Amino acid sequence: MKVAIIGGGPAGLYAAILLKKQRPSADIAVYERNRADDTFGFGVVFSDATLDNFEKHDLPSYRRITQEFAYWDDIAVHFRGTVHRVGGNGFCGCSRQKLLLILQERARELGVSLHFEVDIDDESRFADADLVLFADGINSRFREKHVDHFEPEVDLRTNKFAWMGSTRPLDAFTFIFQETEWGPFIAHAYQYEAGYSTWIFETDPETFERAGLAGLNETQSAARMADIFGWFLDGHKLLTNRSMWRNFPMIRSKRWVKDNMVLLGDAKATAHFSIGSGTKLAMEDAIALADAMAKAPDIKAALDVYEHGRREEVEKTQHAADVSLVWFEHVDRFWDFDPVQFAFGVMTRSKAITYDNLKLRAPDFVAEVEKSFARQVRSKGFDVSTDKPMVPLFQPFRLREMEIANRAVMSPMCMYSAKEGVPGDFHLVHYGSRAIGGAGLIFTEMTCVSRDARITPGCAGLWNDEQETAWRHIVDFVHGNSAAKICLQLGHAGRKGATRLMWDGMDRPLDEGGWDVVSASPLPYFPDSQVPRELDRAGMNAVRDSFVAAAERGERCGFDMLELHCAHGYLLASFISPLTNTRADQYGGSLENRLRFPLEIFEALRAVWPKHKPMSVRISATDWADGGITGDDAVAIARAFAGAGVDLVDVSAGQTVRDAQPVYGRMFQTPFSDQVRNEARVATMCVGNITTADQANTILAAGRADLVALGRPHLVDPFFTMKAAAWYGANDAFCPPQYQPGKDQIFRNSVRDRQDLEELRIKAKPKTRAELKAEATKPLAAE
């Protein structure tokens, strides 16, 4: 077997090592354009979990690597004159040059041929090879040569960064957030060997220009950074090595394999340096390829196993990197945060670390976070403890004169179970049980303002007396048997109306029994959907009046809050999105024009809704489609509604057009809530695959939302919030007297259960290499 590897970085060398171990007789050669001891950058960083993987796959190289590494356990966040140290992280750093030399030495031991200063530009040179690996880095010429096949997507990020080094010793992975006369600068720094540390400097493009960095060479740039961070460098020099400012390219390739050729490492995909995973991804690519080669019957099958088996893990890492880099790109959103809340945001920015996880590894730090959050709540006039505060989820919140006992919200979820718009026994049990279950606030499903405003024949409505009576019965039950507040969500289906029940084909048109639908423009949702009638002024007046009449009925029912549905492609959302609004009149064109009718509806509702009661608006913060609403648009939309008197923005996303490409994942819509809250400066509620109280605490403590809406968890567990209250010891959680013995029991049991689980997790967690090294170097006690 003959293998040619183009690129002598960590991916190529480690692949050569692992493949040669499997097939000692194979002819494996690595071709590198640079010299053996050339390298870009200074240090690389790995987690303990990554080192565990190296240990399992090649023990000799693992031992040499770990002998050279600098270990640390803490992350230190410097911000506005404070420093917060968070332990239990388990990181290690090594010189990139040393890593390459170790891998080269190990490859030679195994019999791999290494060729340096050889520039390969044509893979036909290896026509006789059974396998060709393209590991030629972020600027891969072979990925570009076969661009039509690999179909890479390159997202050049906005922030500027430069990679430098220093002689400044560090005992923690260090983040420094520095305010300057030009704007904020960030340093990501860590020690990789005795006397040397890596320093990556980052800033936004506007600050970069104001600071005059565009015209500086390497030496001048280093001098400027040394001036900015001199207080911390403490006289130590900054070192350069091709340390030019540039933008980070996020690269994703549709395909990784072509015939017997395969992309590896940065050539196929990149991950932002803020999560330190570039070299990790590269070497784990090599592991995945070697594992596939060991198991598959032939090379073609092995490459298929590698591509399809490895892709999910790479995409997960890239998603975490995406979320992390966006946090750093928009650090100005958080600049006025309390420093401890800011540090918590740094730690949890990529969603990999959560509130509970952090509390186990750094309990003192999380205790500070809890006190900081409680102080913010107390400043709003609530009599809450700041010495022994409750977790954020169980802190109270106020909108106008409506106070809710906790931040857990039952999300608005259509039940499609009403008859001619009348909620029945199902709805009474559905809403009543979740209210008793402890949620601070529950939302109705989208309640339609007229018969022709329904999505499906099963949608609830509020346009006649019978419906009003039924809703009043539900509201009275909620108020009489729980501490929950209840919000009425009003909406109009628009072009997505006259469709089947969800379980019969969501958004598909009815075969019979339908009704005429309207929209901003005559564009059907599906090609075979009904073509909606474009609303004229008379139609707009009728829609506005139906919303007002429904709101007046809602007030008579006793609802505590009112929400206007302007999301998910329904009528008002169809005005807002340019993908569904092609009008040429004053209600089309610019975002200001497209918002005109939704704002008109909102203002009409605000005029009849009691002033002491809050109002919210649900928006789609992105259409997940080219040319549609973006996060920046969502900020402008939120500001417009805030100017009209909105108290809360319910931040959802998508469902505007059928060919949208949503990016799913845990808490996948929370970044939009974060952006709207911290740029528009308006209270937000987040929603979207939030499934645990731990996630809710993470979101709230980091300042990404003010309320957390949970949908599917509430569908299967009406007592989701009560169970969370027991878990976190929120003893003041309301419980009707009929259920009090059950509450007492679960609160007693949860104390023990939580203690047992935490002890189990602590025991199961292996010691970090930093801890093991500290123990090994500790002097023996005198006998």
From TrEMBL:
Protein known as: Bifunctional salicylyl-CoA 5-hydroxylase/oxidoreductase
Residue stretches making up the FAD-binding domain: 2-317
Highest rank taxon of the organism: Bacteria
All copies of domain NADH:flavin oxidoreductase/NADH oxidase N-terminal, residue ranges: 393-725
Family annotation (InterPro entries): Aldolase_TIM, FAD-bd, FAD/NAD-bd_sf, OxRdtase_FMN_N, YqjM-like
Organism: Bradyrhizobium cytisi
Coiled coil residues, start to end: none
NCBIfam families: PRK08255.1
GO MF annotation: an example: FMN binding
Signal peptide segment: none
Transmembrane segment boundaries: none
